[in-house]
Structure formats: structure tokens, C-alpha cells
User: Fold this.
Amino acid sequence: MERKKLVLGLLILAFAGLGSGLFFFKDKLPFLATSTSLINPISDNQKQEKKLDLKLVWWEDPAGFTFLYPEEAVLDDFPEEESFYAHLELTNPSKKGKITILCSDSKYPDIETWAKEDSQASEGLSLDTQVASMSAKKVALGEGKELVAFIDWDQVIYTIEIDAQEEDYWREVADSIIDSFKLTPLEGETEEDFSNWLEGFDTSQADIVEPVEVIE
Assistant:
């Protein structure tokens, strides 16, 4: 009986020693490392990719706006197009997709009407957002395509068209442009005049002149 207890004790000590040894050398034994990874697979949250490290530079447009975009991107300006105050196109030779920025006179009285009646915007799902402190619309068109637009106080419409074939890259570029997009004074316009214009036309304190009936 005493011998059985002794043997059992030795077996327990042997297994304990083997387990400790495996734990100590597990990093040096590939098959053990593989087994561990199978038992404790990496969760989806741990696989989240880091944001792209993009060096951003400012574009200042004579049409009265500015924004940040990646220095590595190619920005083409088409000033000769008379139907637009601005026509810009951002591409990257190593990335499929592009972003197009247009600025022109609006055919619509407000951004809500644009979202309902514009041939392209009306085909997508639109959400309210804000760009350059203006009420704006973001329209999902599917297949990585998206439109963001707003109309300023002078009935000028600004549209940012995103074609994100390589989604991670162009989404981040689009976010940089939209988040930094600002309206700026036109050439010859003072900062005071621009600030007053940017605040909109407040007529609450203006004198109201009643119409006078003329009797002939």
C-alpha cells in the first residue's frame, strides 16, 4: 500500500515537472505555439487596422475655399471650364479611385431640394451632415461611391464626389477633405465683409418699410 502511494506521488511530480517544462519552452517549440493560437484565436477587435499615416497639405482655391489633402495625391485643376467656379480632381497612381470637387451656381434653392431632384443624388440614400459650418447632405450611391454637397448663401453649390474603389485609402482622404473644408474670402474681399456674409443675412433688427399706396 505504501509503495502504491509512493509511485502515485512520483507520477504526480513527473507530470507536474513535464507541464512546467512545456510552459517554459512553449515559445521555442513551434507546434506548441500553433496549438496555443488555435485555443486562443485573435478576436476581430484585435485585427482592426491602424489609420493610414498620410502627410496632409493645404489647397487654397481662388473660388473661395480651402481643404487638406494628402501630399502624395495628384491634384488636377481645370480652371478653363467656364461652367464651374472650380473643378478639381484628386487621384493617386497607386490607388484605384478618385475624388472630384466641383463648385458652381446651384439650380436648386436649397440642399434638401438638391437631394430630392438631382438626377444622381435622388438615386441614393441621403443623410444630414455639415461641411464648412453649412447644412449639407451625404449621399451613398453604392459600389464605394458617395456624394457630399452643400449650398452657400450666394446659391453656389459645392459637391465632393468620392469614388472609393480602394475604400480604406479614399475614405480617409475624403474624411480629411470634408473635416477640414472651409470657405475663405474671395480676392479683394475684406475679412469683415466675409465674416458678415458667412453669418448669413440677419434682418431681425432691420427697419421695415411699409409699402405706400399711390393714388393717382
Summary: The chain has a mean pLDDT of 79.
